[in-house]
Design brief:
Blueprint lengths: L1 H16 L1 H5 L7 H29 L2 H30 L4 H26 L4 E3 L5 E3 L1 H25 L6 H26 L5 H48 L3 E6 L5 E4 L1 H6 L13 H4 L2 H16 L4 E8 L5 E12 L5 E9 L1 H10 L3 H20 L6 E6 L5 E6 L6 E7 L2 H10 L7 H7 L2 H8 L4 E10 L2 E11 L6 E8 L1 H54 L6 H31 L8 E4 H19 L2 E8 L4 E4 L1 H17 L6 E11 L3 E10 L20 H4 L9 H11 L3 E7 L3 E12 L16 E5 L3 H13 L3 E5 L2 H13 L6 E5 L7 H12 L4 E6 L3 H10 L5 E3 L4 H15 L16 E5 L3 H13 L3 E5 L2 H10 L7 E5 L7 H9 L11 E5 L5 H8 L4 E4 L4 H20 L2
Parallel strand pairs: 15-17, 21-22, 21-23, 23-24, 24-25, 26-27, 26-28, 28-29, 29-30
Antiparallel strand pairs: 1-2, 3-4, 3-7, 5-6, 6-7, 8-9, 8-13, 9-10, 11-12, 12-13, 14-16, 16-20, 17-18, 18-20, 19-20
Helix pairs in contact: 1-3, 1-8, 3-4, 3-8, 4-5, 4-6, 5-6, 6-7, 7-8, 17-18, 17-23, 18-22, 19-20, 20-22, 24-25, 29-30
């Protein structure tokens, strides 16, 4: 029963000693108390088992004694662990060793719990027989040894911390207590190993807990003592500060810089503020104490003081209660209080008597010499600047003291006229009264002290030209503000009369404006002349070409007559090309030529160009070869007419200067591709006569010709290549040439085109069977010629010769439900002209027909007029079979007409796609898109998995691959290269489509080099995805069949 007595005594002692800790947990809520409270509960539990032990042993209740002993061992282990946790928290141990001790303590507790659980079924720790006789087993001693070792390790660690460098005496005492507690507990456990019935450990456990309580309580008291000492120090400093304010001569105060409220002041300032005591001032702002003008003045001075790094001193002239003038000196400086808030300390003294004394002392020799030296310095500055300024101010920006100088008309020198204070307030306002009203705001802003100092911090001087009213008339004055190099707190403000210079400049500007208007009028007259000349020159040539074409259709012509007519047509066309070149060159040089922006088919353009060149080469006995090394794409947005002109100019020169049996080669290839742009390179190579090296640098100059070429039968105007270079430069492209005399020439053209993205127009050639065109031209010969050219191209065509007949034909076809697709309208007709007729057709039949201008004028001359009635495209007269299809394609694409042959697509239903995408949400969206078209998709989280899935799959199981460019582990570029490098039949042809987050990211450019066929930018549009998949899969399958 002695165990029960010891346990009961221990519980009572612990409850008495720790009653406050257990009862008032809010008061003892700091970490040290929380950990200590856990430890205390474990100790009390330990002693409760001691109480029960004696009772149960006495009663011979073996089963209950067994349970009590189990709880006893667990409470002991948990108590030791909580003590260790407190020690680690005290040491603030965040190292690996500290974490090791905590985990070790938890491990011992877990081991004790585990062993006790096992002991319930198989005795490994202890046994209690039916007679309630307790017997300890060897494993029990092993656990006690582990706990002893754990206590010793923590005690040694506390000893190490105690002797560590930097530990103060207080820390050493605490470490000594912790180390002693651990060693005593370890020794008591060690004794209990040999004398299990000796209650030495229980007694030591109780005393140690009380000691630990005293230790934690001393910690709390020490912290409270420190706080009290700090509070006493702060209170003492406040008392000293207020005592200092009260004993300062004059007025003194402090205020919060952010709120403007007064924090403290002395009695003198309280009386100045008309308050009985300082308490009446504290917590108020200037606006609550003084009148509005005074309050604003004080606030402005506070801002200046806060912007400076040194004390700010300024002076105020006031009148006292007796009406006498007094001068006050105020010193303000910024400081930061204990909480880090900005504050202002101010001290104000009446220095009137002091100034009087100093003025009297100024008559001494030393003061006199100083004044003379200062005056000489100011005078030297004034005389040096006399030739630049008629008026000058020398200003101290800190104190606002200033000296004003003005130039004497007789001597031409600057003389001092006054000395004063408050430059940026009083003097600035005074000067602004003579400023012209429209310039007053700029003048006041320039002399705003804060803005001026900020501007001068980055510049040495500032200049403002403004108007000053002199005898009621505005006179231009230049104000220049400069910093002094030797002292940045001083500035010089100089004024110069610049009225004559500025008025002269205004007169010159007016003259230039008049000259510009005259030049614009002359330019307009020249444009009108060029427009007229263009029409007058082209009209007869159009008639010649038209009649010649009609005459050649007569099958009864003899060979001689046919030959003459063909030469007439060729000559007329050559003359027309020369006229066009001259007019184009003039337009380019005057900046009136602009690029059209419309959709066109590059494939169709190349087909038309090559067809025309093939015919020329065949007639001359030359070999023509067209090489498309990589399909450069089809639908683009730009000026296809000018691009075709560039290619035709260079190709026609190649044919012209190459003799049979030579050759001409056209190569087109795509060198780079972005999301919406592609760079295409055209190379035109011939085996002709070549170009002299001396002429090569001048080959693109207007009217420049190679003498060796011009003397041959192949002479030219010398404008073609100049126009070519201008057009290419307008397209932001480049053109270069390489040649060797007698061996041939090679031209290279690089142009970047924007890809068209029109959902209404698909790739393909014009479907001529779907076209029905009405030609309207008052000249019947030209109208019949246009009809002939269109019908030869396979297009059904009607024509009429005036606007009213055109409206009648439109009405008839509308009633027949077979309207005209396109109306080609001559713009210059008598009676109802092209503009009026077009406006009426568009009003009535805009949903059925497109109107395009057909004119011998330059399109730029009538563009604005045509656009105003809804006409946005044109064809030039006369029409040519070689170009009419291209012109009609351009008109159809611009208007969105569905008259193009669809590009073939593969059926996608039931196909399987491999999707490589690391973002799960993106992958889910894409798979939903594919599923809507009944397409199955296998998802790979990165490029490596995609490569593995493709490698393991059966050839042909995947119809295409969607590949994200940027993925972890292996990105899309590497994955595409790996797939293309595989030794299997479908690796080289399977379509791989790149998915990119940014249309201009470099991975978009590199995707083509990695072997991908196309790319889409995110977010991906479902319609575009399905369209590209269908087209690419169809092309891939055509390669298999060899079609």
């Amino acid at each position: 029963m002695y165990y029960s007595a010891i346990g009961l005594l221990a519980v009572l002692v612990l409850l008495i000693v720790n009653w406050d800790v257990l009862r008032d947990q809010k008061a003892y809520s700091k970490p040290a108390w929380i950990i200590y409270r856990r430890f205390l509960f474990a100790v009390i539990a330990y002693y409760v088992t001691d109480i029960l032990w004696g009772i149960l042993e006495y009663r011979k209740l073996s089963a209950a004694l067994f349970a009590d002993t189990t709880v006893y061992f667990i409470a002991m282990a948990v108590g030791i662990y909580f003590w260790a946790e407190y020690a680690i928290a005290f040491f603030n141990e965040k190292s690996g060793f500290g974490r090791f001790l905590v985990y070790s303590g938890r491990g011992i507790v877990a081991l004790v719990l585990g062993m006790n659980a096992v002991n319930i079924f198989t005795p490994v720790l202890f046994t209690v027989d039916s007679s309630s006789v307790y017997t300890a087993l060897p494993m029990r001693y092993v656990l006690l040894a582990c706990q002893i070792l754990f206590l010793i390790v923590i005690s040694l660690h506390a000893t190490t911390v105690m002797f560590r460098n930097g530990a103060n005496s207080h820390e050493r005492v605490r470490c000594r207590i912790l180390a002693s507690f651990g060693i005593i507990m370890a020794l008591c456990l060690f004794v209990q190993l040999w004398f299990p019935y000796l209650p030495l450990y229980s007694i030591a456990y109780m005393l140690g807990t009380c000691l630990l309580h005293a230790f934690v309580a001393s910690e709390e008291k020490e912290e409270h003592r420190h706080k009290m000492e700090e509070a006493e120090k702060i209170a003492e400093l406040k008392d000293r500060f207020f005592s200092l304010l009260d004993n300062m001569p004059g007025m003194a105060f402090t205020k919060d810089a952010e709120t403007g409220k007064y924090l403290a002041c002395n009695q003198a300032f309280a009386e100045y503020a008309h308050k009985d005591a300082p308490d009446g001032v504290i917590g108020l702002t200037d606006a609550q104490i003084f009148d509005n003008e005074t309050a604003m003045h004080f606030v402005e001075k506070d801002k200046i003081a806060l912007s400076l790094t040194k004390p700010y001193i300024y002076y105020d002239d006031v009148t006292d209660a007796m009406g006498r003038p007094r001068q006050l000196q105020t010193t303000k400086l910024k400081y930061t209080d204990t909480k880090g808030r900005p504050c202002v300390l101010g001290m104000c003294q009446d220095i009137t008597d002091l100034v009087s004394i100093r003025n009297e002392q100024a008559m001494t020799k030393e003061a006199y010499e100083s004044a003379v030296n200062t005056g000489l310095m100011y005078n030297r500055i004034a005389q040096t600047l006399a030739r630049d300024y008629t008026e000058m101010f020398y200003v101290n920006t800190d104190s606002e003291e200033f000296t004003e100088y003005r130039r004497s008309e007789e001597s031409g020198t600057l003389s001092e006229v006054r000395h004063g204070w408050h430059f940026f307030s009083d003097c600035r306002t005074e000067m602004s009264e003579s400023v012209f009203p429209d310039d007053k705001e700029a003048f006041l802003t320039a002399l705003n002290r804060k803005k001026l100092m900020k501007a001068l911090s980055s510049k040495d001087n500032l200049v403002l030209n403004y108007r000053r009213l002199t005898e009621g008339e505005p006179v231009y004055v230049s104000m220049k503000i400069s910093r002094m190099e030797d002292d940045e707190s001083f500035i010089i403000i100089g004024f110069t009369n610049v009225d004559a210079e500025i008025r002269e400049a205004i007169a010159k500007n007016e003259a230039l404006s008049i000259a510009l208007s005259s030049a614009e009028a002359a330019s307009k007259s020249r444009n009108t002349f060029l427009s007229g000349m263009s029409h007058e020159l082209r009209t007869p040539i159009n008639a010649i070409i038209g009649l010649d074409t009609l005459a050649l259709r007569n099958s009864k012509l003899d060979s001689k007559t046919r030959e003459h007519l063909e030469k007439i047509g060729d000559s007329a066309r050559h003359l027309l090309s020369i006229i066009n070149d001259i007019l184009n060159m003039i337009q380019m040089e005057t900046g009136h030529d602009v690029l059209r922006k419309s959709e066109f088919s590059l494939a169709a353009l190349l087909e038309q160009v090559t067809a025309q060149v093939k015919k020329q080469c065949s007639e001359k006995g030359l070999t023509f070869e067209s090489v498309i090394s990589e399909q450069p794409g089809d639908l683009y947005f730009g000026d296809d007419v000018k691009l075709k002109k560039v290619l035709n100019n260079i190709l026609s020169n190649a044919v012209k200067f190459t003799d049979a049996p030579g050759s001409v080669t056209l190569t087109a290839e795509k060198t780079a591709e972005f999301e919406d742009r592609a760079t295409v390179r055209f190379r035109i190579k011939d085996t002709g006569i070549g170009i002299d090296k001396e002429y090569l640098p001048r080959i693109f100059d207007a009217f420049s010709q190679d003498e060796g070429r011009s003397r041959t039968k192949n002479g030219s105007s010398g404008l073609g290549l100049a126009i070519t270079k201008r057009i290419v430069e307008m397209m932001n492209g480049s053109v270069s040439v390489e040649s060797e005399k007698g061996k041939g020439t090679e031209f290279t053209v690089m142009i970047t085109l924007r890809k068209a993205d029109s959902s209404d127009v698909s790739f393909g050639r014009l479907d001529t069977d779907a076209l029905y065109i009405l030609v309207v031209d008052d000249n019947p010969i030209e109208a019949e010629h246009a009809k002939t050219v269109l019908e030869e191209a396979g297009i059904r065509t009607d024509f009429c010769t005036d606007g009213k007949e055109a409206l009648r034909k439109m009405e008839i076809q509308h009633l027949r439900k077979h309207p005209y697709n396109i109306v080609l309208m001559d713009w210059n007709m008598p009676g109802m002209n092209g503009m009026e007729t077009s406006e009426e057709i568009i009003r009535l039949y805009a949903n059925e027909s497109i109107v395009a201008a057909m004119t011998a004028y330059s399109w730029n001359d009538i563009r604005e007029e045509a656009n105003s009635v809804g006409v946005f495209d044109y064809v030039e007269k006369p029409l040519f079979a070689a170009s009419i299809i291209d012109d009609l394609e351009r008109i159809a694409r611009r208007s969105g007409m569905a008259i193009f042959k669809e590009k073939n697509r593969a059926r996608l239903e039931g196909r399987r796609i491999l999707l490589a995408e690391d973002m799960e949400l993106n992958a889910e969206i894409l798979m939903d898109m594919l599923e809507m078209e009944n397409i199955k998709a296998d998802h790979a989280e990165n490029g490596k998995i995609a490569v593995e899935l493709f490698e393991k799959s059966t050839a042909g199981i995947y119809s295409a691959i969607l590949m994200d460019v940027r993925m972890p582990v292996m990105d899309g570029l590497e994955a595409a290269k790996a797939i293309r490098a595989m030794d299997r039949e479908d690796a080289g042809r399977i379509p791989i489509i790149a998915l990119t987050a940014n249309a201009f990211d470099e991975d978009v450019q590199l995707s083509m080099q990695a072997g991908m066929n196309a790319h889409l930018s995110k977010p991906v549009e479902a319609e575009r995805l399905i369209k590209i998949l269908g087209e690419l899969i169809y092309e891939s399958e055509q390669k298999i069949t060899g079609k």
